[in-house]
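About this split. The held-out portion is used to measure sequence recovery: a designer receives only the structure tokens and must propose an amino acid at every position. Recovery is the fraction of positions where the proposal matches the reference. Here is one held-out target exactly as it appears in the evaluation file.
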């Protein structure tokens, strides 16, 4: 069995995508921040002491998508041509969704997952003073389009 991210000596390497043609690609990821009822109420009322939680988390997620190769050592530096991070307060917490788009040689799945993860972390950071039990759950890729492997949607 051969591994794409290991060389013949077993050392980690970045896959060379130089010869691949750029194509339009997109990926969507989702996650959830579980919050106590009092935090949900404060989010809905806009009374979280640290400020506008959703605005901070949205910007954090977009910035994170653009910085993915700084965090994941084998991720390619690609053009993030579009990034949308949406947050919705629901009864049990905050649903986080991110869609990232590019026209490049490799996909943006990791960028979408990073955007959701960091947006969720920003929510935790903003509300941790109100509820230390706030947690992040179920960060997952839900869809991707483009590239050699084509389109994919999570079956659930």
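Reference sequence for scoring:
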């Amino acid at each position: 069995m051969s591994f794409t991210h290991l060389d013949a000596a077993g050392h980690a390497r970045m896959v060379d995508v130089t010869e691949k043609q750029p194509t339009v690609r997109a990926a969507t990821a989702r996650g959830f921040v579980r919050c106590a009822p009092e935090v949900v109420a404060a989010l809905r009322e806009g009374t979280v002491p640290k400020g506008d939680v959703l605005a901070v988390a949205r910007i954090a997620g977009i910035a994170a998508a653009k910085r993915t190769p700084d965090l994941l050592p084998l991720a390619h530096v690609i053009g993030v041509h579009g990034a949308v991070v949406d947050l919705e307060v629901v009864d049990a917490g905050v649903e986080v969704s991110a869609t990232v788009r590019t026209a490049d040689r490799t996909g943006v799945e990791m960028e979408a997952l990073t955007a959701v993860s960091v947006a969720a972390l920003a929510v935790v950071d903003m509300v941790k003073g109100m509820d230390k039990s706030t947690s992040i759950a179920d960060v997952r890729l839900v869809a991707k389009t483009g590239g050699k492997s084509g389109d994919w949607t999570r079956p659930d």
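Annotator remark: The chain has a mean pLDDT of 93.
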